[in-house]
Amino acid sequence: MLSILGFASKSKQPNQQNNSHVSFLAVNVHTDQLICNWKIRDESKSMIQRDFESALFIRMKDISGDHSISSKIVQVSLNQEKARINLPFKSGKILVDLGYKSGLDFMTLEYQVLDLGPKAMPTTHDVNWFAKESEDIHEEMYKLATGGRPLGGSEMAHND
């Protein structure tokens, strides 16, 4: 009964069964690179080859939740099953998609989310713009604005 349903087969070892219906994406981080291994179903390959110019893509997108819109897309061969890609982000959460483009839309076949730890934000030093302000800053700004020539008003008043 199990062999009829496809759960058991006496003629094949489990590792030798037909994997044409299997699809996966496995992504690992090695130093500054993403190592991507994948397999897509034969039907998906045929469709991409027929309808989408055989273009397969790996997209990496920052999904850390800090309103970042950073992403990187790399085109790979339809016959390829692995790639090494320079890591676009050193920290945060990354969505890695394997898919194809349909017009302006990215169609995901498989994906994996990587958590590279808390997002490291560059330390910004609070700049105190007025730390070196002179005692006569208002006078200096006025002279810069007027070019040193009187404009009228209180500059024209005479002390008698």
Structure overview:
With 160 residues, this protein is of the alpha+beta class. It has a domain of 97 residues: Sandwich (Immunoglobulin-like). Helix content is 15%, strand content 33%. A four-stranded antiparallel β-sheet has the order 4-3-6-7, with no helix packed on it. It has a three-stranded antiparallel β-sheet with strand order 1-2-5, with no helix packed on it. The radius of gyration is 31 Å and the shape is elongated. The N terminus is likely disordered.
Give the helix proportion (percent range).
10-25%
Shape: elongated
Q: What's the number of helices?
A: 3
- What is the straight-line distance between the termini? 118 Å
The stretches of 5 or more residues where confidence is low (pLDDT under 50) are 1-17
Nutshell version of this structure?
With 160 residues, this protein is an alpha+beta fold.
Describe the structure using short key phrases.
160 residues; alpha+beta; four-stranded antiparallel β-sheet; 3 helices; disordered N terminus
